[in-house]
Design goal:
Length: 545
Amino acid sequence: MTGTDVNTSLGESASRGAAVTVLGQVIRIVVQLGGIMILARLLTPTDYGLLAMVTAIIGVGELIRDFGLSSAAIQARTLSRGQKNNLFWINASMGATLMLLTISASWLIAAFYGDDRLQPIAAALSVTFLLNGLSTQFRADMSRNLRFGRLVVVETSAQALGLAVGLAMAFAGTGYWALVGQQIGQTVAALGFLIALARWFPGGISRGEPMRGLLGYGVNMFGTQLLTYTSRNVDSIVIGARFGAADLGLYNRAFQLMMLPLLQLNAPSTRVALPVLSRLQDDKARYAAFITFGQTALLSVIGAVLALLGAQAESVIRIMLGPQWLEAVPVFRILLVAGFFQAAGYASYWVFLSKGLMRQNLYYSLVTRPLMIVAILVGSIWGMYGVAIAYSASIAIMWPLSLLWVRRSSDAPVGAMFFNGARAIIVFGLGCVVSGFSTIWIDPELPFIRVIVGGLVLLAWLGLVALVWPRFRRDMVELASARRFFKRRRKAAGTAAVVTEPELAEALEDPALSEGEERLERPHDLIPGDEPPAEWNDDEGKRRS
């Protein structure tokens, strides 16, 4: 058998990974939507607010626990078994230490908010630090070796089991403890599945292994994530401290509904895109073709979903949470703006990671994140809605700033990335307005009818735009033939590769990628974790759910 037969094409691996990941995300969305709909009818805004108060503070411990080492393991050109063992024990030790520190600080958290109920919640959730510390390198190993199918099994199964625990406790009348049980149950299940499906198990500490490069990468990643985390959670801390658990519960549910489509697409799309981009970073043409295609695909899906959610916000809240949550509708609409611009910025993040520009990413965060924190603190003068407006405006401003930063730091196709985002803003923004006006004559008590009609009108709008706007039509054609983008094509000998924009041409030849290979030769970086850190750029969802 020749090397070509043995080795899997990078394009084919990406295609299979994308297909498996999408299937897994569909299952996860169904499970998560079901859980949201049922739990919201069994629990109160105060229940959600109490959990959000705790997770907004202790969530920073997840960043310390990961310390960027999951990304460091994934992006390394080579990674020996000894290095993996050392990374495992570093993450596990950090997790155990943070668990003990959180238990010790649980009384301070309760005193900060002035609510004694928060102390046992924080103490109970502290165990997730240890469990996630043990899980980190198992998950990183699967990501590094592109075992997307196994990751899908882990994530969907753990989510379903965690939800089952939460629902059982909610039906038993345990209130906010159902949410605590859901998070702990999911973390326990994930660790169990990771160990069962891993092809690697850690050994003892290996002295003499070169760790400086991995730890250096992790430090820069950690600094960036810490700034991002603080800026994205100061809103919850401010609302909880100033306005109480009930207002934070409303804000939290609105935020989670906004983040739901982003969470289901961000982490998996990044998991598939970045191994490919890391290999292509020295091939400017193919790198540009892949990243613009990925951005267009992501914005097209997320744009359509967010446009429909914005147009039919009241009906979505009625369906997902129930009429008792209608106070969350205005803040939900405001946060959807942030959701779209956040999705537009994912491509910039891909560039920072795949090009190994972690120091530049840190500098960018040092400039933009403090400004965001100040804006949210000022916005809080006008209450919960002021916080939401400040948050959304900050995210919108940061998108073009991230592109300018990428332009200064790399040769990425910034112009194409900007116009992709601008085109999506125009098309889906107007589509949101059209869909919203199309259902104003339908009784609000018929939310399913309004969502269906609004969705059909939005699809009709997108079809009309595709007919009259050639560039948008080309985007849709490319997405419809996405598999061709990943398909390996053999070049004629001596012929240079040519990337044409309509076809997003060119094969993604894999240098050496076999399923059982211990080391992957890869130029640079990858995702900050499962949903980052692989467990928490789901980040937003797990902290706020």
